[in-house]
C-alpha cells in the first residue's frame, strides 16, 4: 500500500492510495480521497482483493 499526496490545480490536496503487487510491480487497485483515513486504505485493499486472485507465493 502506498499513499501519495497530490496537489490539484485549484490548490486542494488529495490522497492517492494504491495497492501494488510486489512481484509484478502492477498496480492492483487505486483510489483518490480528500481525506487520508482508514476508509481510504480499507476500500483500496478490498478492491485489490476482489479483482485479483490470491498470490501463489
Automatic annotation (TrEMBL):
<dbReference type="GO" id="GO:0015074">
    <property type="term" value="P:DNA integration"/>
</dbReference>
<feature type="domain" description="Integrase catalytic">
    <location>
        <begin position="1"/>
        <end position="54"/>
    </location>
</feature>
<dbReference type="InterPro" id="IPR001584">
    <property type="entry name" value="Integrase_cat-core"/>
</dbReference>
<protein>
    <submittedName>
        <fullName>Transposase</fullName>
    </submittedName>
</protein>
<dbReference type="InterPro" id="IPR012337">
    <property type="entry name" value="RNaseH-like_sf"/>
</dbReference>
<dbReference type="Pfam" id="PF00665">
    <property type="entry name" value="rve"/>
</dbReference>
Amino acid at each position: 500500500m502506498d499513499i501519495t499526496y497530490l496537489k490539484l490545480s485549484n490548490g486542494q490536496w488529495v490522497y492517492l492510495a494504491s495497492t501494488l503487487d510486489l512481484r509484478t510491480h502492477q498496480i492492483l487497485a487505486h483510489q483518490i480521497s480528500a481525506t487520508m483515513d482508514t476508509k481510504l486504505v480499507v476500500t483500496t485493499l478490498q478492491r485489490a482483493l476482489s479483482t485479483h486472485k490470491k498470490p501463489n507465493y
